[in-house]
Specification:
The complex is a heterodimer of chains A (313) and B (476). With 313 residues, chain A is an all-alpha fold. Chain A contains 15 helices and no strands. Classes of the chains: A mainly alpha (313), B alpha+beta (476).
């Protein structure tokens, strides 16, 4: 397969996944700020949404005042100036898809192209209800893309590059949510957590669509350290760091076997998987949750670069 | 002369109103099908086209970066005999074209015989001295030709243009048929239509057959595209998909030791045949335009060393120049010793004094074209132009007569077309695709029918508001 084709497939799926993550962040944030004032704390949730999306600098470059519902939604969902806005993610994803139409199945192309056609008709100045409809549409697009590629693509290198893109992006997104919210997840035996904290935890679960999963796994009320456990170490949870690396490692091994050669990316993925498999939450809290997440994000980026160097360059 | 000549040949009706044999079944169907059903199918067709993403780009039109070519749901129908005659003529013409290009870059007998003027070739910017004395595999230069023909009466086809560089449009021929099969299965029950969907197989067989002698038994064929911003990108990706070959951009290829390789996830892989959809000028920045980012440095030297086949060959522009066109009947006779089966439109070469004078005196009645123009850009249609435009052209002609030819306005035939007012005749042309391989010439029965959707208009180019139709060749 052409390196450029592999590169387009990889970025196509990264951008679709990124669009979905942004939609989830916006959705969770809207719910959190919609709570009655009595539950409200001091934090500006729109500010954390920008931080979670990793866009603080570019946002500040565009807006002077405080982050609020209007400018954050505009910036993260629609702004043409933000290269990672949902709109731009879907645009870029389709551009990548167009360049590699031959490597996609008809259904997979259709999922992306239909979304793009619909995106062209979207107007500015949406009502809250319309925005919520838009966010659903973004999630549906990602589902349609994921589902059609899962159901229709041959299990060969093209498919594995699509999966790698999704998983690297997803690991990054989950880690960023943890990075911004880590302070509400620290075990604090003194402070059981007020109602606000409870909704913060619930909101984190919502942003990775794990509200129900949590209860199935732990069968108890929402505890911050268990939320952290679910998102970091639990392999049943598809958006957890451990699950992402279990799959990254698997698809990279498939590739290595297919091509009869392995390299740096296989080694990096395996080493992170081992680290996550041997870790416990106690240990992570002891060594510092924030530091742990920070180093994970850096390692994940390193794996991305290794994949690029090994296959996509 | 009026703009829509009353004398235009109507492919569906005899002058007395009786329906011609090819259109009997369609006429019955049209009579029995309510208007709203036809309207509904028209909308459905557009929806499908947009959904599949069959679009093309219009240069210089930022808003409509991706536009749909309007599709007319009524097929254009040809009888088996009509097609046989046309196909024979096409094969003859393309054989002559290949012999002529081989001669131009070889012995130049046709010039020594005084049939084609030397300066028309040597001073022509599309003439490539790099090809002088170079062998191409099996002496085939034009593997893929798109010959534009028009009908003016019951038996005669005229060639309007020989597209011998990088002809496009074949994806529309294939997609139009797919859509027709989806929308009108019942019409295919009443007609026995020759299939066209084997075109990709025929093309791949053709491309493999012209691989260099040094290539392995199963040669690697790729399609070279300028990239996603090219107006025909959809077609490039569509064809690569149907052929099952890689679609590459210049940056995916590199040349080492006069051999072409593509960069793959498993390292370099040798390439033997390049179906290139990039113009000569952009192929290799070391030889042609140095600013080209679309090409592959060193490609020409690999080509000249005989390690890779380019389809079409470099320098085939010497056959699709509109001034050279006027010599085609001579060219056919010279190389094949046969009378041309397809006619040529009478053409005045403005490079010749007497011709120029005639053209300047009769601008209001003529179509004036640039010799290297295509896509309907930079063209004057005398009968439709106002005084100002005619005067602008008069000046252009006086300043640079070599750059122009002129032809009479042809009464292109008409076919029934679904328009807002109902079903009405509209002018059409036809671009069949002629494939030349080592073993033989292949032509799938059909081609791309382009239709001028505006009443009376003779301009069928998609960049100028033309649409397309499915083209049916009946099997008897």
């Amino acid at each position: 397969m052409l390196s450029r084709t592999a590169d387009n497939l990889y970025w196509l799926s990264r951008y679709i996944e990124r669009a979905e993550c942004l939609a989830r962040i916006l959705d969770a944030t809207s719910r959190l700020v919609a709570l009655p004032q009595a539950y409200g704390g001091q934090t500006n949730e729109w500010e954390s949404a920008i931080a979670t999306a990793g866009c603080v600098q570019s946002f500040r470059a565009k807006y002077d005042g405080e982050a609020n519902e209007r400018n954050v939604i505009e910036f993260l969902a629609f702004s043409p100036d933000n290269p990672s806005s949902i709109r731009n993610c879907l645009e870029t994803a389709r551009q990548n898809a167009r360049a590699v139409r031959t490597a996609l199945t008809g259904e997979t192309w259709d999922a992306i192209n239909s979304a793009w056609n619909r995106l062209q008709k979207i107007k500015t100045g949406m009502s809250r209800e319309e925005i919520s409809g838009f966010l659903d549409f973004v999630k549906d697009t990602s589902l349609a893309f994921d589902g059609s590629s899962f159901r229709s693509m041959l299990r060969n290198d093209a498919y594995w590059f699509v999966r790698l893109g999704i998983l690297i992006e997803r690991a990054d997104a989950t880690a960023r949510i943890l990075d911004v919210k880590y302070h509400v997840l620290l075990p604090d035996k003194e402070h059981v957590g007020g109602p606000l904290d409870y909704f913060q935890w619930a909101s984190i679960l919502r942003s990775v669509s794990a509200r129900t999963s949590y209860h199935w796994v732990y069968r108890e009320g929402v505890k911050p350290w268990l939320v952290a456990d679910l998102l970091i170490l639990n392999r049943q949870m598809p958006r957890s760091l451990a699950s992402c690396y279990e799959n990254l490692s698997r698809y990279l091994d498939d590739l290595a076997q297919f091509y009869g050669r392995q390299g740096n990316s296989q080694r990096l993925a395996r080493s992170m998987l081992t680290k996550l498999s041997n870790a416990t939450m106690e240990q992570i809290f002891q060594e510092g949750l924030h530091e742990f997440i920070g180093s994970f994000i850096a390692e994940n980026n390193r794996l991305g670069s290794a994949i690029t160097e090994q296959y996509l360059g | 002369m009026s703009v829509s000549k009353p004398s235009a040949f109507d492919e569906m009706h005899h002058p007395d109103g009786r329906v011609r044999p090819a259109y009997q079944a369609l006429a019955k169907w049209l009579q029995s099908t309510p208007r709203d059903v036809i309207d509904y199918r028209r909308r459905e067709a557009e929806f499908i086209f947009r959904r599949i993403g069959i679009t093309f780009a219009v240069y210089g039109n930022a808003e409509a970066q991706e536009r749909l070519i309007p599709f007319d749901i009524l097929p254009r129908i040809l009888l088996a005999d009509e097609w046989r005659h046309l196909a024979k003529g096409l094969e003859q013409r393309v054989k002559a074209i290949n012999a002529y290009i081989h001669d131009i870059y070889g012995k130049r007998e046709i010039m020594r015989a005084g049939k084609v003027p030397e300066d028309l070739i040597f001073k022509n910017p599309v003439f490539r001295p790099e090809m002088n004395g170079k062998q191409v595999p099996h002496n085939i230069y034009v593997q893929i030709a798109g010959i534009d023909v028009v009908r003016v009466d019951e038996k005669d086809f005229y060639v309007l243009e020989d597209n011998t560089r990088v002809p496009s449009g074949v994806s529309y021929m294939l997609e139009n048929r797919e859509i027709m099969l989806r929308l009108f299965p019942e019409l295919f029950m009443d007609h026995r239509v020759e299939p066209v969907d084997n075109y990709p197989d025929e093309l791949l067989t053709t491309l493999k057959s012209v691989a260099p002698p040094t290539a392995p038994g199963e040669p690697t064929v790729v399609l070279l595209t300028p990239g996603i911003y090219n107006s025909a990108y959809y077609e490039h990706s569509f064809l690569a998909d149907k052929l099952g070959i890689e679609i590459v951009e210049g940056r995916d290829l590199f040349v080492k030791g006069n051999v072409v390789y593509m960069r793959t996830t498993e390292g370099p892989q040798r390439v033997d045949v390049i179906y290139r959809r990039v113009d000569d000028d952009f192929l290799d920045p070391l030889v042609f335009r140095p600013d080209s980012a679309l090409g592959v440095p060193g490609l020409m030297s690999a080509y000249q060393a005989g390690n890779v086949t380019l389809a079409n060959a470099v320098g085939t522009g010497v056959a699709d120049d509109k001034a050279v066109y006027s010599y085609m009947p001579e060219i056919v006779k010279f190389y094949l010793g046969e009378e041309p089966l397809l006619k040529n439109v009478e053409t005045w070469r403005c490079r010749e004094k007497a011709h120029l004078k005639y053209v300047l005196d009769n601008l209001e009645q003529l179509v004036v074209k640039e010799v290297h123009g295509s896509g309907g850009y930079g063209m004057l249609i005398g009968p439709k132009a106002d005084k100002k435009i005619i005067e602008t052209f008069r000046n252009k002609l006086k300043n640079d007569p070599k750059n122009f030819i002129a032809q009479p306005t042809l009464a292109l035939s008409t076919c029934p077309t679904a328009v807002d007012e109902g079903v009405a005749p509209r002018h059409v042309d036809l671009r069949p695709f002629v494939l030349t391989g080592r073993d033989k010439v292949r032509i799938v029965p059909g081609g791309l029918t382009r239709v001028a959707l505006e009443k009376g208009s003779l301009v069928v180019n998609s960049s100028q508001g033309g649409g397309t139709k499915d083209t049916w060749v009946l099997d008897r």
